[in-house]
Automatic annotation (TrEMBL):
Protein name listed in UniProt: H(+)/Cl(-) exchange transporter ClcA
GO term, biological process aspect, one: methionine biosynthetic process
Positions of transmembrane segments: 12-32, 70-92, 113-135, 165-190, 202-220, 240-261, 282-300, 320-341, 353-376, 388-412, 419-442
Localization annotation: Membrane
Keywords: Amino-acid biosynthesis, CBS domain, Chloride, Chloride channel, Ion channel, Ion transport, Membrane, Methionine biosynthesis, Transmembrane, Transmembrane helix, Transport
Keyword Transmembrane belongs to the record: yes
Organism from which the protein derives: Methanoculleus chikugoensis
Length: 627
């Protein structure tokens, strides 16, 4: 199947958005139902853990209880890690780790996604999260939606650019759907690909795709926000404390990033050194996670809550915090426990997202900060303000480390249903984003569009169109030339002496009559000797450019005829050599311009072909022919 070329571009974009929206809605729905079934079977059925759940009202969530068989956490989580590792590293190694980064990589690389990847990602993420692994459901949903979007692009015969659009739209629609945050998800599609830029083309189709996905998912799961509303309040006098929370969130966010990738490096190094198959890395991470939780449970009841809260997505414990039901001691240690269990689970190669853990880590950081302020300044920071600090902490920390502050801010307020929190969140996240610098939880992000392979050609063309041959050519007085009466042996000597691989050929009057390169000499030698004259082996079919030609025109000419250097001649005299330009000169000029060096502007010129009756053939070379 292939989309007809007569389909207008805007119709193709609409088609992409509709298809991706359907994929995101259905994919998120089946994945979410799989998670519910898996969690009910493993955590509730085997472990006996009555998990607190996001969205529960105060009365229902108060019924949560620790596991009846706490020790069963270890075999259950190890089973999930083992099976997940075997599936991932056997069938789709690219499905390891957090899916959002894989989707970002697919966008910038423009590569096709193998058909098996979304399915493997879905199954292994369900196994990882439902057995207690600390991971989020947004990363797998993003990778699944982006992967199926890429597959749909292949089936429809879409271009590489349109496949990238489908991938970006899939990321936003998938995350927006699973979080019931369509607006934030759509903006995330454009924002999460870069550290300091937006993929503007993805915003509008992501709006449509997110709405479609949200509608499909909501028709089955309901349209209520992810988190149930608690009693919250804040006032303008607290804004300095929210800004200070941005500083604290940055510090914890950096700990999260460094611990996560440090753990990843350790696992790779140890398994490589011991020559243990990667299939067992998630099992090792799961074993350490389960052991850590059991060790905390042995310390005290509060430590047990910290350990249990560090399992799975952690959203149920975030809901408890929004109801002010977690003690300050739990909030203080939960961020660091969650950082460790997430690093062990996903950093070891387990399948899941870093988004949900990041929100819980940020929320617990904000909740702990707000609780301490409440204890120190109860008049200024009442108990009703502590959940606000929890929500703002979510936004500040993950908005900073993901370099998607606008999308995360909108998503979290959609998830909580309280848009009045945008004001304190803006203060906190702006400070956090400034302080975080270039550090990111998504290593596949690039700085901006100019550094993305998806747009590099666009920027290169734009830059090369702005520089002209006359600005960068080697001038006539620096060009090494030969005459038709010179021998091929002398040409070889010049090649050895100058390290240039080709030279213009000038007659006695100084007119350009040909080009000779190393290949010409090699291809035309007689009995291994090089006594033949240049006139007999040179290429008299010479492509030239004028001073006013753009570098793009020159490069296009070189590419079309597989040559690496061009003589520069005046427009009114194609045999008067006035300069020389090579691919190396063009690349140097591009690099200088891209780093801020401006070229002079001239009118656009044209290219010329010179032919003489002396000899036929084509020359090739690759280096500058001047001093």
């Amino acid at each position: 199947m292939q989309v007809e070329e007569t389909v207008t571009p805007y119709r193709r974009v609409i088609l992409i958005a509709v298809i991706v929206g359907l994929i995101a809605g259905l994919g998120a729905l089946f994945f979410f139902e799989g998670l519910k079934l898996g969690t009910a079977f493993f955590m509730e059925g085997i472990v006996g853990f009555q998990l607190p759940k996001e969205g529960q009202n105060l009365q229902d969530i108060a019924q949560w209880a620790p596991p009846d068989h706490l020790w069963m956490i270890l075999p259950v989580i190890c089973f999930g890690g083992l099976l997940s590792g075997l599936l991932v590293y056997t069938f789709a190694p690219e499905a390891e780790g957090h899916g959002t980064d894989a989707a970002i990589k697919a966008f910038h690389g423009g590569k096709k996604v193998r058909w098996r990847v979304p399915l493997v990602k879905a199954v292994t993420a369900v196994l990882t999260i439902s057995t207690g692994g600390s991971a989020g459901r947004e990363g797998p949903t993003a990778q699944m939606s982006a992967g199926f979007g890429s597959i749909a692009a292949d089936l429809l015969g879409l271009s590489t650019r349109e496949r990238r659009l489908a991938i970006a739209t899939g990321v936003g629609a998938g995350i927006g759907t699973i979080f019931m945050a369509p607006l934030g998800g759509a903006i995330l599609a454009a924002e999460i690909l870069y550290k300091q830029d937006f993929e503007t083309e993805a915003i509008v189709p992501a709006f449509l795709a997110s709405v479609i996905g949200y509608a499909i998912f909501g028709l089955v799961e309901g349209f209520e926000p992810v988190f149930g509303p608690g009693v919250t309040s804040w006032n303008v006098s607290q804004i300095p404390f929210f800004i200070l929370l941005g500083v604290v969130s940055t510090a914890v966010g950096l700990i999260y990033i460094n611990t996560f990738y440090g753990t990843n490096r350790i696992f790779k190094k140890v398994f490589s050194r011991l020559k243990i198959p990667n299939h067992f890395k998630p099992l090792a991470g799961a074993f350490l996670t389960g052991t850590f939780v059991l060790a905390l449970a042995a310390l005290s009841p509060e430590a047990a809550i910290v350990g249990l809260g560090s399992l799975g997505t952690g959203y149920g414990f975030a809901q408890l915090a929004l109801y002010n039901m977690l003690p300050v001691g739990v909030l203080l240690f939960l961020p660091f426990a969650k950082i460790l269990t997430t690093s062990l689970t996903i950093g070891s190669g387990g399948s899941g997202g870093v988004f949900a853990p990041g929100l819980v880590i940020g929320g617990a950081t904000g909740g702990a900060f707000g609780s301490l302020l409440h204890l120190a300044l109860p008049g200024l920071i009442p108990a009703e303000s502590v959940p606000v600090f929890f929500i703002v902490g979510m936004i500040a920390l993950f908005g900073a480390i993901s370099h998607a502050p606008i999308a995360v801010m909108i998503m979290v307020v959609e998830m909580t249903g309280d848009f009045s929190l945008l004001v304190p969140a803006m203060g906190a996240v702006s400070v956090a984003v400034i302080l975080i610098g270039q550090s990111t939880i998504f290593r596949e992000q690039v700085l901006n569009r100019s550094q993305s392979p998806a747009h590099r050609d666009e920027y290169m063309i734009e830059i090369l169109q702005d520089i002209h041959v006359g600005d960068v050519m080697v001038p006539r007085d620096r060009i090494v030339a030969v005459s038709p009466e010179d021998t091929a042996g002398r040409v070889l000597h010049l090649i050895d002496e100058t390290l240039h691989s080709g030279f213009p050929v000038l007659d006695k009057e100084g007119s350009l009559v040909g080009m000779i390169a190393l290949d010409d000499v090699r291809d035309n030698r007689i009995n291994g000797e090089h006594d033949e004259l240049v006139e007999g082996v040179m290429s008299s079919r010479v492509f030239t450019v004028h001073h006013a030609c753009t570098l793009r025109e020159a490069l296009d000419l070189m590419t079309e005829h597989d040559i690496h250097h061009l003589p520069v001649v005046p427009a009114d005299d194609p045999r008067e050599l006035s300069g020389f330009i090579t691919r190396t000169d063009i690349m140097k000029a591009y690099t200088q311009k891209a780093s801020g060096s401006a070229g002079r502007r001239h009118r656009t010129g044209s290219v010329t072909l010179i032919e003489s009756d002396t000899a036929a053939g084509k020359s090739s070379g690759d280096e500058k022919k001047g001093g």
